[in-house]
Design goal:
Blueprint: E1 2-7, H1 11-28, E2 32-37, H2 40-48, E3 55-59, H3 67-77, E4 84-89, E5 105-108, H4 113-128, E6 133-138, E7 141-146, E8 150-156, E9 159-164, E10 168-172, H5 175-181, E11 187-191, E12 194-197, E13 201-205, E14 208-211, E15 216-218, H6 224-235
Parallel strand pairs: 1-2, 1-3, 3-4, 4-5
Antiparallel strand pairs: 6-7, 8-9, 8-12, 9-10, 11-12, 13-14, 14-15
Helix pairs in contact: 1-4, 2-3
Length: 243
């Protein structure tokens, strides 16, 4: 079940957007539950109480708050890096501050059904049809991790280190085997020793990428052109074949 939060201080717009989202989900055969908020402060309180959503549709300017403040709560306070944020605004220009929260999309007011459907179709194409569980074995025990919470894998001899949002682990195996298991899951092989989850790249900087947790991952010279192609492909709404 996909959980979606809508936050706009204009109740009519909030209800209209929620109706468009529900209609789009039915059209796309997405099982979803939508909750609306006309207050950014109320939404933040729910998040602090432990509620969470996979997609947020946020008005940038709220009567009692801002979309930036709500985004900061999502990313930096409750530490949710997997959720996708869609900004909704009546302005053409967007503050550079917004990009620090890695928005999934922008929708300009006045919006229509097609804009909402296109956004949810893109989300479903990228995240909705994948097996989100990665299984690995250490010793005699089998473990699992959500792919949406994995930042990257690092090869270390006969072992592979797995770095997740809130923990780290390791297992015997090869990065090649991990690549085979996670084809089409949004992973980028930046270096022979690193397989990175595109969702958690904060910035591309020539011979390295910076992850959302501050870790610096090297980019091999021979991978630069391929990674640039992958980056463009991801930003256009899809996962590159063979990744």
């Amino acid at each position: 079940m996909l959980k979606i939060a809508v936050c706009d201080d204009d109740e009519k717009i909030c209800n209209l957007l929620e109706n468009y989202i529900n209609d789009s989900c039915r059209t796309l055969h997405i099982e979803a539950e939508t909750e609306s908020f006309i207050s950014g402060k109320v939404l933040k309180r729910k998040l602090r109480e432990g509620e969470n959503y996979q997609i947020y549709f946020l008005d940038i300017e709220l009567a009692d708050d801002t979309g930036i403040s709500v985004s900061d709560c999502i990313r930096n306070e409750i530490k949710d890096e997997a959720a996708q944020i869609v900004y909704v605004s009546g302005k053409d220009g967007y503050d550079r501050q917004l990009f620090a929260f890695r928005p999934f999309n922008f929708i300009e007011k006045p919006f229509d059904q097609n804009m909402v459907t296109a956004t949810l179709e893109k989300y479903n194409r990228i995240y909705g049809k994948k097996n989100d569980i990665f299984h690995y074995k250490y010793g005699h025990d089998m473990y699992c991790a959500r792919v949406s919470e994995i930042l990257y894998f690092k090869s270390n001899g006969r072992k592979v280190k797995i770095v997740m949002q809130k923990s780290e682990d390791e297992f015997y195996g090869s990065l090649e085997e991990v690549c085979d298991k996670l084809k089409g899951q949004g992973m980028i092989l930046t270096h022979k020793s690193y397989l990175v989850n595109y969702r958690y790249i904060r910035s591309f900087q020539g011979e390295q990428v910076i992850m959302v947790n501050g870790d610096v991952i090297p980019v091999a010279r021979g991978r630069k052109e391929e990674i640039a192609r992958m980056q463009l492909h991801f930003e256009n709404g899809g996962f590159a074949h063979g990744i």
